[in-house]
Amino acid sequence: MEAHAYRGTCLANVAAVYDVVLISGAEPTWEKEFLLDYAVADPTDQAALAAAGRALAERYELAGVLTWTEWYLVPVARLARQLGLPTTAPEALQGCRNKHTSRTLFARHGVPSAISVGVRAEREAADAAALIGYPVVLKPAAHAASMGVIRVDTANELPAAYAFAAQTAGHGVESTQVLVEEYLDGAEVSVECVTYQGQTTVVAVTRKTVGLAPFFEELAHVVDANDPLLADVAPVAVAALDAVGVTDGVSHVEIRIVDGRPHLIEVNARIAGDMIGHLVHLATGVDLAHTAADIACGTLPDLTPTRSQAAAIRLIYPAYSGTLTERCLDAEFTDSTDWLERVHFHRDAGDKLVLPPNSDMFSARIGYLITTGPSAEVAKNRSTQAYRHLSVQVTPV
Q: What is the percent of the chain where pLDDT is above 70?
């Protein structure tokens, strides 16, 4: 998937206020227009990352270092510490990355969360599921983007589900465990938070549409600057960040509302994916990428809202796996609307689209469209309206 389709706005917004030097695993392409300089090194290789960081520090006066990539959180925090720059402790970020550790910390600090058991074998998973009670959720302890996450309703479904989750879990760095967890039956939201020197401000709440059962794929998001749910979820999100030890940075805290009460899913100590940071900017005027850069440089961020509206994203998927033959949005419609903020396709005719369980959702996603409005309801309705003007043709495999 094209990185610039989802993170391009982050880099552009940071480069608008700071000189940026980049450490990347490959030669930069689209990023170059935003860069002062760069070094090529694998960010997951701590020694290579440290060497690249030191080399850049010799050429420039580095003020801060940050990442919005989940898999780089711990190595980048270690690099910041080595360079004497502000950061949440690497040990705390390891706790965020390892969901088993997070659950333990939530329980220790009284943060409402799901019952969770870490396992390393199918038999252990079956025993844990029987103890917790079906339905349960199986997930890798250290991954991201709902990869390898599956709901299991009966004991008969567990062997195949465990194999599905374990395949992804085996690639984890912080842990290769599979978690068997209580299924939290309720609406899913995320809380977009900013923490500076241990003090957290909740900026926005994102309401999610999750589907394609038994998987937990995110299909749409909406951010409303005036969402009344913000007051209910903010204290739990802040308590979760305190529990895991996040002291500095932008975080994406996922929650389910069960019987009217918030329960933690997980803490992601970086800017949300799926353009959620951009939705927050459109809805509130708060630029989370700029904010993350300020915090990385030890500067108090300005979180004053300058907008009060809503923004929604609809992620575009095929109804079934196959070969994409057409994708377009009616040009007459796009020209006649001022609330369709953007539409982006990152799949072309001829591309193979494979849905779970045979692959992850990123291999099937065709693109997205973003709409705005005075309220969440209007933004979502406009998103549906735009979606109806979309033409997607897929030839089944």
A: 96
Alpha helices in the chain (DSSP H): 4-15, 46-59, 73-82, 90-97, 99-108, 122-132, 158-169, 230-244, 276-284, 288-296, 331-335, 376-388
Question: For residues 193 and 251, is the Cβ–Cβ distance under 8 A?
Answer: yes
Strand runs labelled E in 100-216: 116-119, 136-140, 150-152, 178-182, 187-196, 199-211
Instruction: Provide the mean pLDDT of the chain.
Output: 93
Question: Do the bridges between strand 352-353 and strand 217-224 make them parallel or antiparallel, or are there none, so unpaired?
Answer: unpaired
| pLDDT over 90 (residue 32) | yes
Task: Assess contact for 371 and 333: CB atoms under 8 A.
Answer: no
Cα–Cα nearest to 201, from 245, 243, 250: 250
Q: Which pLDDT score is estimated for 173?
A: 67
Predicted confidence at residue 1, as pLDDT, reads 45
Q: What is the pTM of this model?
A: 0.91
Parse the chain into domains and list their residue ranges.
4-87, 115-182, 311-397
Say if domain 311-397 classifies as CATH 3.30.470.20.
yes
Which residues, 6 or more positions from 38, have their beta carbon under 8 angstroms from its beta carbon? 21, 22, 23, 24, 28, 31, 32
The two three-digit tokens of residue 270, written as one number: 């970086």
Task: Give the bridge partners for 152, in sequence order.
Answer: 136
Which of the residue ranges 56-70, 172-186, 249-263 would you say has the lowest mean pLDDT? 172-186
Q: Are 386 and 337 in contact (CB under 8 A)?
A: yes
pLDDT digits (tens, 9 = 90+) for 139-168: 988 766 667 889 999 999 999 999 998 887
Residue 96 token pair:
């965020």
Q: How far is CA 77 from the centre of its chain?
A: 18
Q: Report how far residue 239's alpha carbon sits from residue 31's, in angstroms, rounded to the nearest whole number.
A: 36
Rounded to 5 degrees, what are φ and ψ at 348? -115, 165
The third-level CATH classification (topology) of the domain covering 115-182 is Dna Ligase; domain 1 (3.30.1490)
